[in-house]
Amino acid sequence: QVQLVESGGGLVQAGGSLRLSCVASGRIFSNYGMGWFRQAPGKEREFVSAISWSGYDTYYTDSVKGRFAISRDNAKNTVYLQMYSLKPEDTAVYLCAARPFGKGDTDPGDYDYWGQGTEVTVSS
């Protein structure tokens, strides 16, 4: 089992920044590919970004390329999502997910473990 706990969400004005964190416990963190997804009210869960288990490969959905940056610190069992130039359409609950030896997986069904999410609200 892997337990994931997200933090860092909040209310921010358009153009602002936030950094989300996801702390993992329970298994060898460095063996897991990590993903960030988001879900807005009434919408399906969508892929945002992923980082491979090695940390060498990162992936982004088109709408966040150039604005978001994913990274991981295996010594801290933590994956981050730095978000810049936030837009109202980025408003959602952001969830992190883990998959053993994952690499760029964009389908939520590919992930074995999920956190509870942290809410991001971007005001216009």
Write a concise keyword list for the protein shown above:
124 residues, seven-stranded mixed beta sheet, four-stranded antiparallel beta sheet, mainly beta, globular
What does this structure look like?
This protein has 124 residues and is an all-beta fold. 0% of the residues lie in helices and 51% in strands. It is built from no helices and eleven strands. The protein has strands at 3-7, 10-13, 18-25, 32-39, 46-51, 58-60, 68-73, 78-83, 92-100, 113-114, 118-123. The strands form two sheets. Strands 2, 4, 5, 6, 9, 10 and 11 form a seven-stranded mixed sheet that branches. Strands 1-3-8-7 form a four-stranded antiparallel sheet, with no helix packed on it. A hairpin with a 6-residue loop joins strand 4 and strand 5 (46-51). It is globular, with a radius of gyration of 13 Å. The mean pLDDT is 95.
Distance between the termini: 40 Å
Mean pLDDT over all positions: 95
Give the uncertain stretches in residue-range form. Answer: none
Q: What structural class should be given to the helix and strand makeup?
A: mainly beta
Please give the count of helices. 0
As a percent range, the share of strand residues is over 45%
Which value, in Å, is the CA radius of gyration?
A: 13 Å
Principal-axis shape equals: globular
* Biggest beta sheet summary: 7 strands, mixed
Helix content bin: under 10%
Topology order in helix (H) and strand (E) letters: EEEEEEEEEEE
| Overall number of strands | 11
